[in-house]
């Protein structure tokens, strides 16, 4: 039997984001991408699946904060001196969850026949003992959001531009249009705002969707001029 570690020892956990070691940047499919919810910065992740999880978070207005390599458990797991979660989401409720992201093909069957990563039951017990919530995100779960993810790969650069701009009058104009035309298409918004470039309109539409002030049918159709828009809980 190996050395026994306390699951509530001081210093057992530390918060990230932690940099990815150079050797793992070479060995894995290293990705850099910009994230608004990570604090308007570039994040570094180790696989396309982790990158998709970031876009998924950007697509959901109920998720307000994202962090990569967010939490480390300073305890040996196999040949590794510690374990680091892949990503964390914080929700509008204030709850935070730490995720390990794996394809199902790399997981093993647990005692109750669920697919889990190696050492997951131990990791889960340690987190539970320290009031952390953790879950597994599989490729199957993430792929269920593939259409929204693809749409936000396109929309995120536009939303970034709007967040970095200070043109509230454009927001007011878009809201005014949607008050008059419920479920207006993007083309209809363009037509109602001829004095503003289409690209700039898209930027602020993306920001409004990102903030949860507007909804769009991005989970059922690819982004296009026919994408429909509606206001959410907008006070008159």
Question: Which tags fit this structure?
Answer:
Arc Repressor Mutant, subunit A; three-stranded antiparallel β-sheet; TnsA endonuclease N-terminal domain-containing protein; Trna Endonuclease, Chain: A, domain 1; about 240 residues; 8 helices; alpha+beta; disordered N terminus
Overview of this protein structure:
- This protein has 236 residues and is of the alpha+beta class.
- It folds into 2 domains: 13-143, Trna Endonuclease, Chain: A, domain 1, CATH 3.40.1350.10; 157-231, Orthogonal Bundle (Arc Repressor Mutant, subunit A), CATH 1.10.10.
- It has 8 helices and 14 strands.
- The chain has helices at 22-27, 48-59, 120-129, 139-143, 146-163, 168-180, 186-192, 198-210; strands at residues 13-15, 31-35, 41-45, 63-68, 71-73, 83-84, 87-91, 96-102, 108-109, 115-116, 134-138, 184-185, 214-216, 228-231.
- The longest helix is centred in the middle third of the chain and has 18 residues, at 146-163.
- The protein starts with 12 loop residues before the first strand and ends in a 5-residue tail after the last strand.
- The relative contact order is 0.12.
- The model is unreliable at 1-5 (pLDDT under 50).
- This is TnsA endonuclease N-terminal domain-containing protein.
The chain-level structural class is alpha+beta
Strand order of the largest sheet: 4-7-8-11
Give the topology string: H per helix, E per strand: EHEEHEEEEEEEHEHHHEHHEE
User: What level of helicity do the residues show?
Assistant: 25-40%
How many beta-strand runs?
14
Question: How many domains, as an integer?
Answer: 2
């Amino acid at each position: 039997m190996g050395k026994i570690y306390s699951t509530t020892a001081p210093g057992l956990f530390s918060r990230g984001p932690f940099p990815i070691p150079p050797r793992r940047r070479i060995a894995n499919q290293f990705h850099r991408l910009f994230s608004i919810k990570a604090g308007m910065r570039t994040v570094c992740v180790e696989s396309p699946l982790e990158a998709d999880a970031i876009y998924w978070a950007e697509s959901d207005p109920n998720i307000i904060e994202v962090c990569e390599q967010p939490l480390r458990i300073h305890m040996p797991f196999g040949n590794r001196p510690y374990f680091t979660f892949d990503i964390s989401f914080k929700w509008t409720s204030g709850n935070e969850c730490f995720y390990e992201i794996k394809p199902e093909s790399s997981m093993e069957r647990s005692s109750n026949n669920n697919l889990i990563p190696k050492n997951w039951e131990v990791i889960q017990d340690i987190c539970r003992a320290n009031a952390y919530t953790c879950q597994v995100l599989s490729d199957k779960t993430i792929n269920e959001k593939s259409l929204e993810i693809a749409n936000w790969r396109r929309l995120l650069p536009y939303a970034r531009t709007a967040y970095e701009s200070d043109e509230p009058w454009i927001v007011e104009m878009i809201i005014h249009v949607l008050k008059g035309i419920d479920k207006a298409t993007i083309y209809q918004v363009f037509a109602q705002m001829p004095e503003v470039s289409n690209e700039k309109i898209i930027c602020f539409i993306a920001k409004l969707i990102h903030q949860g002030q507007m909804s769009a049918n991005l989970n059922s159709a690819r982004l296009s001029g026919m994408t429909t828009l509606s206001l959410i809980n907008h006070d008159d």
